[in-house]
């Protein structure tokens, strides 16, 4: 397994409110929101406290099963949510902050994915690109119900209205996916600064051309900026 991650503030934002983690078998992207740099705080703290909970608990496991890893990941995102929410209500400068959060833990041949918000995980396999996660947005839910087409989600006036965010409440309801991965597969984790600029067919085209994770990440970020770079961009690519 090979991987690479990077983040870029884009061409329109003064600050980078994204944060990412890519190390060994655990990969995370988070896209913070909130005024006066609070988004930066939310994304950074979410990863910090997720890692603390995850590492503290995984160290106590003699053997990790698929069932126990699901509980561990859900417990870890719940712990991160509690800590970010606590900071938002005790620190006046952070009031109302939150963050998207998408994490992937690779255990043997399974990608265990936990997800809140509109950051994404794609699976590239056999020259095809599949979106694994669902956008927790007003428009994303309309698409899931079949009320609008996928193409219509890109230009809908409410496309940025998030319906599920880490840190804005004392409880959280994440999505969980377990996906079998095989030799030749590629996983892409990204914040919406990528997919808001690039349609999936262009992400696929760029992914096909890149021979390794580093080239793939750099090319995707370069194209997102070339087409406007209206938001912070974070991308992690994992090759199997």
Structure description:
With 240 residues, this protein is an alpha+beta fold. It has helices at residues 38-58, 66-90, 138-144, 192-195, 200-209, 213-226; strands spanning 2-8, 18-23, 26-33, 98-99, 101-107, 110-116, 120-125, 128-131, 175-180, 186-190, 233-239. A hairpin with a 2-residue loop joins strand 2 (18-23) and strand 3 (26-33). Helix 1 packs antiparallel against helix 2. It is globular. The mean pLDDT is 93.
Strand and helix map with partners:
Elements: E1 2-8, E2 18-23, E3 26-33, H1 38-58, H2 66-90, E4 98-99, E5 101-107, E6 110-116, E7 120-125, E8 128-131, H3 138-144, E9 175-180, E10 186-190, H4 192-195, H5 200-209, H6 213-226, E11 233-239
Antiparallel strand pairs: 1-11, 2-3, 3-4, 3-5, 5-6, 6-9, 7-8, 7-10, 10-11
Helix pairs in contact: 1-2
Q: How would you concisely characterize the structure shown here?
A:
With 240 residues, this protein is α+β, with helices and mostly antiparallel strands.
Low-confidence stretches: none
Mean pLDDT: 93
Question: How would you sum up the global shape?
Answer: globular
Compute the number of strand runs: 11
Tell me the number of helical segments per DSSP (H or I, 4 or more residues long). Answer: 6
How does the helix and strand content classify structurally? alpha+beta
CATH topology: Phosphatase 2c, domain 1
CATH architecture: 4-Layer Sandwich
Order of helices and strands: EEEHHEEEEEHEEHHHE
If you compute it from the alpha carbons, what radius of gyration comes out, rounded to the nearest whole angstrom? 17 Å
Approximately how much helix is present in the residues?
25-40%
Q: Report the biggest beta sheet as strand number plus sense, adding barrel if it closes.
A: 6 strands, antiparallel
* Relevant CATH superfamily: PPM-type phosphatase domain
Name the CATH class: Alpha Beta
> End-to-end distance, in Å?
5 Å
Please, how many domains?
1
User: What percent of residues are in strands?
Assistant: 25-35%
């Amino acid at each position: 397994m090979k991987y690479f991650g990077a983040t870029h503030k884009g061409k329109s934002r003064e600050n980078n409110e994204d944060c990412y983690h890519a190390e060994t078998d655990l990969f995370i992207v988070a896209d913070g929101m909130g005024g006066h740099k609070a988004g930066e705080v939310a994304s950074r703290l979410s990863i910090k406290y997720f890692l603390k909970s995850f590492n503290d608990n995984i160290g106590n496991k003699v053997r990790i099963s698929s069932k126990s890893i699901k509980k561990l990941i859900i417990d870890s995102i719940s712990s991160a949510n509690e800590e970010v929410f606590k900071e938002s209500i005790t620190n006046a400068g952070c009031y109302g902050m939150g963050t998207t959060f998408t994490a992937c833990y690779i255990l043997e041949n399974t990608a265990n994915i936990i997800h809140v918000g509109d950051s994404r995980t794609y699976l590239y396999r056999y020259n095809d690109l599949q979106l694994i996660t669902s956008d927790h947005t007003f428009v994303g839910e309309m698409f899931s119900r079949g009320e609008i087409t996928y193409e219509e989600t890109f230009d809908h006036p409410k496309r940025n209205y998030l319906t599920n965010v880490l840190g804005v409440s004392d409880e959280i309801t994440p999505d969980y996916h377990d996906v079998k991965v095989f030799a030749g597969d590629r996983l892409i984790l990204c914040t919406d600064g990528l997919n808001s600029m690039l349609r999936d067919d262009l992400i696929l085209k760029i992914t096909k051309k890149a021979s390794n994770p580093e080239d793939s990440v750099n090319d995707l970020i370069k194209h997102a900026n070339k087409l406007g770079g209206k938001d912070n961009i974070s991308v992690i690519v994992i090759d199997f």
